Amino acid sequence: MARMKFLCDAERCIECNGCVTACKNEHDVPWGVNRRRVVTLNDGVPGERSVSVACMHCSDAPCIAVCPVDCIYHTEEGVVLHDKDLCIGCGYCFYACPFGAPQFPQAGAFGMRGKMDKCTFCAGGPEVDGSEEEFRKYGRNRLAEGKLPICAEMCATKALLGGDSDVISDIFRKRATMRGGGAQLIGWATAYGRQERAQERKGAGEGGK
Amino acid sequence: MKVINMFAAVALLVFAAAAAAAPSAQEQAQRQMQQPFNNAPVWGEVRSGEAQSTTMRGIETGVLIQPGGQTWRELRNGPIVLYGGILLCVVLAAIVVYYARRGTLRLKEPETGRKLVRFDMVDRVTHWVAAVSFCLLGITGLTLLFGKHLLLPLLGYEAFSWLAAIGKNIHNFTGPIFLLSIVVMFAAYVKDNFWQAADAEWIAHAGGLVRGEHVPSHRFNFGEKVWFWLGVSGLGLVVSLSGFVLDFPNFEQGRFVMQAANVVHVVGAVLFLAMSFGHIYMGTVGVAGAYEAMRDGTVDESWAKEHHELWVREARAAGAGAQGAPQDAKPRAV
Fold first, then answer.
1. pLDDT tens-digit map of A161-207
2. Do A94 and B35 touch (CB under 8 A)?
3. Nearest-CA residue of chain B relative to A106?
4. Domain, as residue range, for B74
5. Do B127 and B262 belong to one domain?
6. What is the number of domains present in chain B?
């Protein structure tokens, strides 16, 4: 069985927020909740990188570990889903998650939390696949329709990959090996020794250029 | 040893938040010149928990990875649940053993029928508001902390979820009532809870708990004073205030603040509960007449002499109006 994963290629992400919009549109996400967001690191500085982030569907998921009513679970494909009928809105999953994935629509005064909402890897919830009930609570179940998550499918630069871990890892690995040269990637010094020695060689008329 | 580890982990949690700062931006800009595809400075700092840029509005949406949750999870699911559970069980077991060996502490002299007023209406109302809300908070809090391991397997998912949801709401609404009650309680009880010379004697005899000898005390003995300062006032305030941080997530507090508050809240609450077991035991089956004192506000003269001898004497000597003395100093029949 496939192990589902997201992988965001920071060399390709252009912070267009297409994934964010696609997700909101596909699932009728509750007001105030963003299942996916794009964070730009070192914005405006040469070498800035953007990463699209949502629930990472962890194998050792902190949310599952701390949920006091045990309403979060792994599917056979490694997708982390939760049962909104059991969720009590305590916020523990939100404390534990490093990615800020679990969020709570406000259910009352003083920030009282409603049922947790998060990315489902477009795999719905515990309800019958494709049912009205499932859509209302969790959004569309694209996996049951044989499709992959809409965010990854919509990504214009194919920075965001979602799907079987083996497949997307291979895609990414191929990209990484093709990208740039050894010297560009790991630096001249690491690839060919210290610069002074290279210059010495050049001075001795050994190398070209 | 393990306790030290726990404190070290809490300290780490604090330092992790303090040590953010990003020299990585400059470093990355420089690195970019020579090694365009090397993002090591960016990724090296990615777990710092520092807020970066995002178009998403909301609290901490710019934080890509918040590392504190891992520490919080390890503390809560590890030592807090384990040692907290052990502590509560040990205290309960100790009380059961003590009761089995010693039984209820009864009066040695027969009752006189003359009643002294020990707690006035304000004392009693605040005590019972605090007591009832404390019990509700304690039971619902323990349900959230241990229910997954103890109740969930018995009740099943659906029933336990109902119980926990109701519990969570009771907990969140009762919390503020509890804080109010302990503030009033502090004002009502503080005057008789300062150090008095007789307390030294009480400590020297361990309150007569071990050998059962009589140790005279004022209106409150040293044990009651410890419960007042460490329990009601100290832990009461710590647990209430940390609870408020969690109860009202609408003040833009970040996850680190809530993780830290939760650790303080749970550790404080477990200690508070452990102490309360002792207090509840003494106030019910442990000492005959203690529960009636708080229910009716009055105690029999014999009870007063046997448990709070100095209080009775003081009251007689001081005459009318002495605060904390038996009502108007004159033992009054009710």
1. 999 999 999 999 998 888 766 666 666 666 666 666 666 666 665 44
2. no
3. B250
4. 68-318
5. yes
6. 2
Do residues B296 and B257 share a domain?
Answer: yes
How far does the CA of residue B54 sit from the closest CA of chain A (Å)? 5
C-beta atoms of B258 and A179 within 8 A: no
Residue B211 lies in a domain: yes
Contact A34 B262 (CB under 8 A): no
Residue ranges of domains in chain A, CATH in brackets: 4-178 (3.30.70.20), 182-209 (no CATH)
Prediction pTM value: 0.86
One domain for residues B206 and B232: yes
Average pLDDT over residues B295-315: 90
Which positions in chain B touch A106 (Cβ < 8 Å)? 250
Cβ separation B46–A41 shorter than 8 A: yes
**Long-range contacts of the stretch A163-171 (C-beta < 8 A, 24+):** A163/A2, A163/A4, A163/A5, A164/A2, A164/A3, A164/A4, A164/A5, A165/A2, A165/A3, A165/A4, A165/A5, A165/A78, A166/A2, A166/A3, A168/A5, A168/A7, A169/A5, A169/A7
